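Service request form, structural biology core

Requester: graduate student, group of Dr. S.
Request type: structure prediction, single chain
Budget code: on file
Notes: please return the result as structure tokens.

Sequence provided:
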Amino acid sequence: MRTYGSIKKIILFMSIILLILSMSLIKAQQATPYGVEDKEEYKKALEKWKNLSPEEKQRVREIHKKWKKIPSEKKKEILDKYKKFKSMPPEKKQKIIQANENWKKLTPEEKEKVRQNYKKWKEMSPKEKQKIRNNYKKWQKSLRGKTGNKKYK
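Core staff response, request fulfilled:
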């Protein structure tokens, strides 16, 4: 499974892409740039661009070059995930961000082990998966009993 970075990076990346797209429309010298439906969003993007340092602007340009190289199907997938993430409740967003932080802390060997386990999981029958879920629930209950921690439901 291939990732393009943490959710935070994806959010920043998508914001920057939207900023670049808005900025590229400035060149058209139109009162309402082509493709911009919301003038307020356009103004916000322009203001963000103006407030970036030269180094940040250079970073945005580099990201834009990478974005142009991504196949359109993958771009659509990234944008769909970005929209889905943006519409999530804050608690769910925080869980995803934390999971990504945890992922980044793993060694390459640990990441590979996770990938292998995920592949095995995808190949399991529903019956096998249910057995593992049941064992996991039993394990959580035993932890709750030993620690008194209600975190383990």
